[in-house]
Structures are given as structure tokens and as C-alpha cells.
Amino acid sequence: MRYLKSTIFLNLRVKSLSKNNLPTSKNASVLKKPDIDKQSLKTAQIEFDNNGLPYSSQFDDIYFDYQDGCSQSVQVFIEGNDLDRQWLEYSADKSSPFVIAETGFGTGLNFFLTLKRFESFIASHNPDWTLRFISTEKYPMTADDLNQALQLFPEFDVYRQEFLSQYQLSESKQVLNIRMLDNKVDLQIHLQDATAAFASLEPKSFAHVDAWFLDGFAPKKNPEMWHQGLFMQLARLSKPGTTLATFTVAGIVRRGLEKQGFAVTRKKHQQYKSQTLVASYTGFPKADNINGYKRRTSPNKPQHVTIIGGGLASACAAYSLVKRGIKVNVFCQDKELAQGASANAIGAIYPLLHQQKDEISEFYQAGFNVAKNFYQQLISQGFNYTHGFDGLIEVAYKDALKERLQIFEKKPVWPEELVSVIDAAQVNRLSGMDINQPGLWIPEAGWVSPPELVKAIFTAAGQLGQCKVKYNTKVESIEKMATGRFLLTTNKGQKQIQTLVLCTGADTVNLAIADELPLSIVRGQVSQLQATTASKPLKTVICHKGYLTPTVNELHCIGATFDKKDSDTSTRNADNRYNFETLTRLLGNIGNWQLEDIKDAKARLRCCTPDHLPMVGAMPDIAGHKKAYQHLGKDKNWRFEQSPPVVEGLYVMTGMGARGLCSAPLLAEILACELVNETYPVSAEQLFQLAPNRFIIRDLIRSKAG
């Protein structure tokens, strides 16, 4: 079942299906199932050595290592899929089990180790969901052989008899269904080729596979199993975020998984096998055949990274890098975190959705999903902050917006669980207020306290790895040295840095090294409004031309202004009046407020881009782009092999405007993938839409670059 440097372990051998039977895409029809009733069930040919170790005479190998079999399986499959964390974060109704799928049941070692682990989880957390374990085995062991093999593991004695009493092989049975732990665990063993078995599964019987145990004979010795048909089925049954772990690091497996949309990473170990593969399903195949200027070149994985900035972008970037074993230093110019654009008491988190899918909406939908899951994951791990994920309503307060609702309803392009049209009565019921207007309902949206969230993320990063924040450290200038390092001049002296990330928000425009990026500053003032008896029932965020949040500490947040080319962060009474009058004019004075009920305000600066999408990635060498890609001015479709010239070692993550809460976690993952050469969580086209060099490329195409 597993292969080490010196020994190959196996538990099944599968025959590849003919090309005519292979699906051509994830949505293709399933493979034709073999008629098992007309086939003779072939059991494994087993011999036992003097230690009782099962040996396959069919494949001339042992099933597991006598001394370290359990430890290896735990390390590779249970820890490789991070099941403890996944189970802790898993939430589902009772009809949706957590699903693990495996290639090769063999002696059942992986299953029994998972069963034991899950029993401990039940004792500690008492989940209201069940575990489903789907395995495949073309050559199953007889009950007697299985019983003898399991006697090597006394820790499984408590399960063995219950399991064997249900393990009834038969010529007529295609699937064995076995229940364990008072029906908390449902085991299905499909007695056929792995690819055909998975092709026979319909996702309607379960939502998706949550974790894959990709076990089996080594690709060099059993190439018939490791083919695109198998990888297609893994992708078909996965969802974004589905994890996978396997012993093999063979290129055919890594490339096959990447082609089907898995982000694959080598995982190093101190014991047993030195490297294994872990993966996460993104749905975006790794793209190699793209125009040169759209590519991203990854450096050798840095050991240390320095981040400038103390807000949400910096926090998310630090977390994503530390999670991958990189040591992070953060320079924060203030005496505490989140004093810039992340300083507002309350911020809404929701996606920007247009009537038709476009690059902006698709990015913010993806960003919203990543952000929501990440923020909720922090809470489940005990990193708390003030929040409320109780939904958000975009109120159609004028005729043009009501017409927009009709388009959303008649030609829906977004999943109903993401957004739906609701009438005035539903708006009133869901919000708890008499708004008396229809709107769009985004049930999974909500609000957070950005300063508390930033601190929670940094705390989590600090516990995950090495992350140090240096406060009151203002970077005054950045210079690229002849050595390739960066010389940072700060108020506390000079420092030399090898790899630098700018999460500097609006301050980016003041850095000479980034002055060719087309960034702009937009001032925004948020006002805090005293809660009243009439306004306290508000349960959701309300968006109109501005927004209104539920009560937190007896205050609502309303806003915000949008003042271009204004960098003054002092608060203004006129802006408080504007926020108040906009709210009461568009929604009516639903809270019976007076202007005097505004108790506080904050003005901060947003960093924006011309196309309303943020940017993340290596800092482009603008002069190098003009030289390398000048032919774009004559032929915009010209294909280049050369990758984009960049300022090596310098990265930027900024331009999030007013939507940092929705976009920062996904941008941080993209940044981390670039630095450690992982498969990206977005498509190649989406990646270029976020690239810092996209603007110079567009200028060259329009012949505007001098």
C-alpha cells in the first residue's frame, strides 16, 4: 500500500480502462461499470511470514512495514490531510457526512487508524455528523486472511469482531457496506478497479469527497492504475478545498493531479519516507501554455520574508507565509496594529456581484468564499474577535435597483445559496427593521471588527510559526542594492532585506520604488451612530448607497464617504452630516435618529487601482517590460516566451480599495503560492487580472507606454 526508499508496499493492482471508456472532462458521463455478477471475484493471494506479516504473492511485496506501518500511515494520510483540523472545522447537517475516499483497502490499516482517530474525536467533541469512508479493492482479502493480518495490531481488537461479522464477500456483491461505532461510521468497500469504482459514484448520494487517501502500488511498478482516468474521477468527486495525500512523489502523479486542478505540494518528513505529496483541489488546472507576460516565476523558497504594514493585508500575508514554514518579520509604523484602513470599528464582508459574471464579480465571489472560511476557521481554533455572520441585505431603494432585481431573478447567474432576491416583507423579517423595500439577500455575509480580526490573525500566525512584529518602525525609503538585497532606511536605522513584501495600502504611493504603479488614494469617513430603541432590533448589515451595521457596543457604523485625491485623515462634521443624511434619505429614518446621535468618526485612506481589482505579486520592472514586450504595440496577440521582468525579491499586495475584508485572504494565498512555487488557487487568467504588471501590458498594447 505504500512505498519507501528500500521497500514497496502494495495492496491492489488495477487495470486501466480503454480510452473509449474514459471521461473527457469533470462533467463527463461516468464510466461504464463492469458487470461484477458475470465476473469471478478474485481474492488476494496471501502468504504470512514468521512474524505474521501478510505478503502478496501476486505482486511480490508486503502490505505494510512490520515495525512502522501504523506510524507511516498516520503521518502520510491522517496528518497529510490534516483530519484533526478538518473535523474540528466541519459543520454540516446530519444528512451530510464527512467523506474520505481511498484507493486500495488492503488490510484496512488506513481505515482502522482513521476509525480509532475518529472515535477519540467523538469522545472529545460529540459531532452531530457522521463519517463515510469509501474504499476500493479489486483483490480483497478473505475474512480469514484479514483476521490474521489484523491480529498484528492489538489496538484494533475492539473493532475487529464487529468489522469481520459484516465483512461478507460474495460473488454477487459489488459493494460491502459496514457500519461501525453505533452507526457513526459508514464504510463502503467497492470490489473493483479504483477508477471504475469512483466513476460509478454519483455525488447526489453525498455532497463531495472531503479527503483522499491516494494509496496503491508505485507508479513505476503498476502504471496501469496511475492514469488520467483516475485523476479525472478524483477531480469530479472533489470540491474546492478537498485535500489529498499520497506516498508517491512520482512526476506522473503530480502532473496528473495538477492537470485536473489540484494544487500539489511536496511535504518533507524527518522519519520514514523523506517526501510525500499533499494536495488541495482548486478546480483550476496548472496552465503552462500561456503568453509569457502572464506567467509568474517563482524564486527558491525563501527562509525569511519581511513585510511592511500593520493592517489586514499584512496579517493575512504573514499567516499564509508562516503556514508554509517561512519566518516572517513585520514592520509596523504605529505603536499597535490596524491603525490605517483596518482601523474602523466595524467592517462589512460581502462579495461584489454584478448582474452578469465578469472578472470583477468572479474574483470577489472567490475571495469571499476564502475569506469567510478563513475567518470562521480562526474562531473555531479559539482566535476570537467581535463578529456577526448573520447575512447582508442590499436594499433596492430606487427604481433602477428594482429593475436590477428583476434581472437577477429572471436570469440568475449566481448560486441561490450565495445571493437571492427577497421582497419587502422578507427584508423586514430578516433585518428586524421596517425597511419596506425589496433587495438582494446574501445569507453568509456579515461584519467583523477589523482591528480585532487583524490581532487575531497575527496571534494565530505567531502560534503557527515564527512571526515577529516590530512596532513604531516607519520605513522612509527602500533602495535596491547591487548585491540584490534591499536597503531599508527606517526611523530606527538601516536594515538589509533579501525578500520584501509591501502591504502598505495607501502609503504605497509614497514609496519611490513603487511609484510607477497606477495607484490612487481615496479618503473615506465612517461615522458611529448611537443605537436607539428603534434601531437595536437590526440583525443584518444593510447596504444602500452606503451601509448600516447592527449594534455593537451600543453603536452603529454608517458610511462611508468617497473622496478622491484627498489624503487628510482628520474627521469632518460635514462628512458626518453626509453619512447621516444619505442613510435617512434613502432608507427613511428607521432608527428615529438625530444628527446629534453621531458620537464618533474615523477617516482613513483607501488604496485603489484603475480597474477596481487589487494587485498581488512580484513588482514589475517597467523598463524591462517596455523593452521585452514592445511588439505588443503592433500586434496585441503576439506570443512571447519571455517571462515578465521583475524587481527580484520585491512583492506587492495592495489596491484593495474598500474590499480588503473580502479579498485579503485569497490574495495572501496567491502571494504565498508565488513565493513557494505552489499551484495557484485561481485560474491563469484570473491570476493575470491581479498581476501588478497588467497595467504596463495594457499600456503597451494601446501604445501608451513611453
UniProtKB/TrEMBL annotation:
The protein's matches in InterPro entries, at most eight in alphabetical order, are given as:
FAD-dep_OxRdtase, FAD/NAD-bd_sf, MnmC-like_methylTransf, SAM-dependent_MTases_sf, tRNA_MAMT_biosynth_bifunc_MnmC, tRNA_MNMC2, tRNA_S-uridine_synth_MnmC_C
Q: Which cofactor does it need?
A: FAD
Per the record, which residues fall in region tRNA (mnm(5)s(2)U34)-methyltransferase?
1-282
User: Which reaction does this chain catalyze?
Assistant: 5-aminomethyl-2-thiouridine(34) in tRNA + S-adenosyl-L-methionine = 5-methylaminomethyl-2-thiouridine(34) in tRNA + S-adenosyl-L-homocysteine + H(+)
Keyword terms: Cytoplasm, FAD, Flavoprotein, Methyltransferase, Multifunctional enzyme, Oxidoreductase, S-adenosyl-L-methionine, Transferase, tRNA processing
Chief location of this protein?
cytoplasm
Could you tell me which residue ranges the FAD dependent oxidoreductase domain spans? 305-672
What does the entry give for GO biological process?
Answer: methylation; tRNA wobble base modification
Q: Where does this one sit in the cell?
A: Cytoplasm
Family that this chain belongs to: In the C-terminal section; belongs to the DAO family.
- Give the protein name, as stated in the record: tRNA 5-methylaminomethyl-2-thiouridine biosynthesis bifunctional protein MnmC
Query: Which organism was this protein described from?
Result: Thalassotalea mangrovi
